[in-house]
Each structure stands twice: as structure tokens, then as C-alpha cells.
Specification:
about 290 residues; alpha/beta; three-stranded parallel β-sheet; 10 helices; 11 strands; about 40% helix; globular; binds nicotinamide-adenine-dinucleotide
């Protein structure tokens, strides 16, 4: 069994980006600038945004954190987005999800300039991805492709089963794994909460990409020997013995499933760190595209 070490690969990627940034600085060029908008004070969102901003600082990007109160109206947020769209200093920005209930998520994502949409959530970018055109690929799926590529995992002709059909992970992942090229060329089954007899399908899978958010949902008796496992799930499970009061748990029963797997991502230290690295990569791409204009 080979561990798909997202911590190591994400560090390699960050070092590669830092070297690019150093070159930009040496040439007197503007370095990439990422802004993150956080509405409210949700604990997990604060942690995610914090690590994104810190990652920017470490590799030499400029970063801006826009913190708005929980009571922010849709109109106020749309005004902020317009400002960021028009601000020439900002190369890319993200709106941390979820948003408070008074704000329509779709309206907000549609308002982001597609050229600055480094999360790849705007329909224009999502459409381009589906049509194999060059674009920003959403960071988590992009990170999974990068892991498969760097560990030279064969995907051609394989049966890939994706669990979960969210717009940010499962759905784009199913499209990317079925595209021409590598990683891709898989025969894909996209499963979800209404799928019948899921374990019959997962038992036939060569590659399982699980993104549903139920701790230890994928058990050893649901997979075949030699399976490749990508565990996207991140759930905080209460644990009094842990200083933080919780442990981060994936969708896969790692201990048992890893005995059958040929490749597997750990949680934490698998897909999670890759997501941040690929957001930085998208921001670098955004800067490069803007400087070519
Ligand atoms: P989501 O929470 O929006 O949706 C869950 C999906 O799982 C739905 O499509 C649903 O149909 C499916 N599902 C639920 N129960 C099911 C069942 N019994 N059988 C089959 N499918 C079922 O999904 P999301 O936003 O993609 O998040 C999924 C998990 O991935 C969460 O734990 C989240 O925290 C994590 N996540 C991690 C990263 C990362 O960087 N590693 C990024 C995004 C999400």
C-alpha cells in the first residue's frame, strides 16, 4: 500500500510556486495577490480562511482578508464583490462558504469576475472545465488530479466511483475523471444519497473518491483488493481526550480499508493540504493571465 501523502506533495507544490514568486520579484513584477472574504464567525470557516491567508504569506503572495459581520446583507456583500472585481491590485479572490441564510449563494458566486474566480465556482469556469477548455479547476478536484498524477496512478479504462455529488467536489470530480487525458479516461459512476445498493457499486470500483462527510462510511467489506482510495471527507468528531475537543475524521475506515488498498489518502494530511496548494496555484495562474493582457 502506498500512502498518497498530500502534506508532502502540497509542500512540493508550494515550494515550486514560491520559486516562481521569487522570479517575479527578481524581475520587478507584481506578485500574486489573493483576497478572501469571510462572512460571519463560523469556527471551521475561520480556520480554513486563516490557513489560506497564512499559506499566501509563506510563499510570498500578498493577501487580504475581508471579514464581514454575520448580519451582512446580500446587497452589502455584492457591493464588496464589485469592489474586488474592480480592484486592479487583486488577482483572485474567494468567498468562503457557507454563507449566512439571508445571502443567496448562487447570486454571490455569479457576481465574481470569472477571471478572478480562483475557486472555479463561476458557471463560466465550470462550463469551460466540462468542455476541456483551459480554466480554473476547483481547488479540491484539482488537488486530487495532482495527487494521482504525481504518484503516477493509472486511471485510463479504470472504473472510478465518486461518492457525493456536491458542486465543489463530487460533480466536478466525476467530469474530470471521465475527460480525455490523464488523469482521466476513467469510466465514472457518480453516486449519491439516492443511490441504491451502493456497496455493490463500490465493490466493483478500481478507484473510489469519497466526498460525503460521514465518518468511516466506507468500510473494508465495500471495496475490492487493490482499490485506490481518495478520501475527501473532513468531519470534526467530538473527542474529550484530544486537546481541541475533537478529531478530524475522514469518510473511510482507514485502518481496515488501507489493508486492501493499493493507494490511499490519509485524513488529515491527504486531500486537505492539496486544496490550499491548488488555490495558490490558481492564484498564480490568475496573475500570469492578467499580466499577459
Ligand atoms: P456536501 O456535504 O455538499 O454533500 C454530501 C454529498 O454526499 C451529497 O451529494 C449527498 O448526495 C451525498 N451523500 C450523503 N449521504 C450519502 C449516502 N449515504 N450514500 C451516498 N452518498 C451520500 O458535500 P461536500 O461539500 O463535497 O463535502 C463532503 C465532505 O468533504 C465533507 O466532509 C467536507 O468537509 C469535505 N470537504 C473536504 C475538502 C478538502 O479540502 N479536503 C473540501 C471540500 C469538502
Amino acid at each position: 500500500m502506498t500512502l498518497l501523502d498530500g502534506k508532502k506533495i502540497s509542500n512540493d507544490i508550494k515550494n515550486e510556486i514560491a520559486a516562481e514568486v521569487q522570479k517575479m520579484k527578481d524581475n520587478g513584477e507584481k506578485v500574486p495577490h489573493l483576497a478572501a472574504v469571510l462572512v460571519g464567525d463560523d469556527g471551521a470557516s475561520l480556520t480554513y480562511v486563516g490557513s489560506k491567508v497564512r499559506a499566501c504569506e509563506r510563499i510570498g503572495f500578498e493577501s487580504t482578508l475581508v471579514k464581514l459581520p454575520n448580519t451582512t446583507t446580500e446587497v452589502e456583500l455584492l457591493k464588496k464583490i464589485k469592489e474586488l472585481n474592480e480592484d486592479d491590485a487583486i488577482d483572485g479572490f474567494i468567498i468562503q462558504l457557507p454563507l449566512p441564510p439571508q445571502i443567496n449563494e448562487q447570486k454571490v458566486l455569479m457576481a465574481v469576475d470569472p477571471h478572478k474566480d480562483v475557486d472555479g465556482f463561476h458557471p463560466e469556469n465550470f462550463g469551460k472545465m466540462a468542455l476541456d477548455m483551459s480554466t480554473f479547476i476547483p481547488a479540491t478536484p484539482f488537488g486530487i488530479l495532482e495527487l494521482l498524477e504525481r504518484y503516477k496512478v493509472e486511471t485510463k479504462g479504470k472504473h472510478t466511483v465518486v461518492i457525493g455529488r456536491s458542486h465543489i467536489v463530487g460533480r466536478p470530480m466525476s467530469i474530470l475523471m471521465s475527460r480525455k487525458g490523464w488523469p482521466g479516461n476513467s469510466t465514472v459512476t457518480l453516486t449519491h444519497s439516492r443511490t441504491e445498493d451502493l456497496s455493490k457499486i463500490t465493490k466493483e470500483a478500481d478507484i473510489i473518491i469519497s466526498a460525503l462527510g460521514v465518518p468511516k462510511f466506507v468500510k473494508a467489506d465495500m471495496v475490492k483488493d487493490g482499490v485506490v482510495i481518495i478520501d475527501v471527507g473532513i468531519t470534526r468528531v467530538p473527542d474529550e481526550n484530544h486537546p481541541k475537543g475533537y478529531v478530524i475524521t475522514g469518510d473511510v475506515d482507514f485502518e481496515k480499508v488501507s489493508e486492501k488498498a493499493s493507494f490511499i489518502t490519509p485524513v488529515p494530511g491527504g486531500v486537505g493540504p492539496m486544496t490550499i496548494a491548488m488555490l495558490l496555484k490558481n492564484t498564480l495562474l490568475a496573475r500570469e493571465q492578467r499580466s499577459e493582457k
